[in-house]
Amino acid sequence: MTHALIASLRAAAGDMTPALARVAETVLAQPDATLRQSITELAEVSGSSEASVMRFCRDQGFSGFQDFKLALAKELATDERARDIGSPSDDIQRLVETAIISLRETEQLIVRKDVATASRKLLDASVVECFGIAASAVTAQYLAYKMTRIGKFSRALGDAHLAVMAAGTAQSGTVQVVISSSGSTIDAVRVADLARSKGAFVIGISNRSKSPLIAACDLALIASWPETPLTGGAFPSKISQLLIVDALVAEMTRQDPKRLVELSRTAEVVSDRSF
Amino acid sequence: MTHALIASLRAAAGDMTPALARVAETVLAQPDATLRQSITELAEVSGSSEASVMRFCRDQGFSGFQDFKLALAKELATDERARDIGSPSDDIQRLVETAIISLRETEQLIVRKDVATASRKLLDASVVECFGIAASAVTAQYLAYKMTRIGKFSRALGDAHLAVMAAGTAQSGTVQVVISSSGSTIDAVRVADLARSKGAFVIGISNRSKSPLIAACDLALIASWPETPLTGGAFPSKISQLLIVDALVAEMTRQDPKRLVELSRTAEVVSDRSF
DNA sequence: AACGATATGAAAAAAAACTCCAAAACTGAA
DNA sequence: TTCAGTTTTGGAGTTTTTTTTCATATCGTT
Q1: B200: DSSP letter
Q2: What keywords were assigned to this record (chains A, B) (predicted)?
Q3: Range of the domain at A51
Q4: What is the pLDDT of residues A108-147, one digit of tens each?
């Protein structure tokens, strides 16, 4: 919560403008070196300008470069333990270790207040639609399933056309959850825009904080963007999304404890389908 | 080590010259306030001069005021950290920690040889069917998606009746993957039995090693069964299943590296669906 | 009191941080 | 394609902060 600087930086880096992205990469590559640099030096090393570094700091929510460096110093001071662990001897171990880092980062990225707000909206919704395509369809399905388990009807839409149609009929009581790892999937943004224009409350779940999807949402929940972006990062980013889903569901049962009763009731209903 | 700076400062404060001692006292009284002050402000507040503050920093072994502030920030951060650890962790933190344990356990449970065998079978299969119901449907869908990504066609069946029908038409080249967390779901076992009787190779994924499903399979892959069985355990056991799926897919690309080419090709195909 | 050594702060100099603005790059529409 | 409007960007200037310099004050010793 307090020490989410590096993680949120990585989540934001992807959708920054070129100059800002260069600054972000430079900082991420050598965070400790940044501490010893002046704004002029960092501008030079990253191939941008002082003004861009300044903008970078502001965008991250700091009052200026000084403020940013102070926060970074704090982060690095506590971060020393996270660096040692991990002797990745085989593929699966490596997968597990990156997944763990990603989960921890996501835990820090999750804004508790936003989870509470989102949960409230979901509980109060007359209709809940979950949309995700490709890999994100899995997350959407998981959310819909979990909500059904606590007696809150919702459906997952894995088809872009269906989702667009559904979004088109959204009303003010509708909550539309849109999931996209990159946050740049055209269909996802379209669904978000459309649902919002119809008066629905739109919750975005993504691994990128600065993305078209997030810009189009009423509320955004960000999962960690793992260091290894290609194949190796798919699993960590996926389970980080699922963590957010579970956080939402946990919060919903906390806000409305009688949902736990629903949970055991749904368990009863399916018990005759087991040995 | 933890309080190196503050401690040595307090120790040194006694026999400093008056002006420097005032600076030291001011810093010790409000270390966190110092972080937000400029050298001029600190000089003013401590009733000394900028030059004295400068000398103070140098005497402590720092190159200047900035350097001192950075070190102080780190020190205070570790303090905050220590306080955080003592405080009761919230729901999300607890979720993450149990998930981590579960992932590590699953990594231990995964029999590498079985993963290799299963991957071989999947690669050689003429048809791959993935079946999972309720929460396990998510895992099935994830597996089907990932296999499609590496150019190996497979489909997920989330409907028990459809799955039974599909299993009934299985042949010797068919690989049937059946997922059930408890391993006791009637429909899952039925699908496994039926597919096997038709000559299919049946791979079971479950969180229970001694279960009807596992007994009915040719090969079993076991994910960890977390201690907390109710709500708290659902998330860990789910992502442990996904870990197994990713382990399978990683092994498949290892055995058949040209699959990686397929991966980037599928990425290209969908790239025009992004901004 | 005179001397030398140390301590101190005012002010100048240097550096760093921050702001502003016009040029460049990019966007989408005609 | 051109063109208008927007966004992005870095240069140049301004302000603030840090650092150095140096003259003066202070103190202990003889």
Answers
A1: -
A2: DNA-binding, Transcription, Transcription regulation
A3: 5-84
A4: 999 999 999 999 999 999 999 999 998 999 999 999 999 9
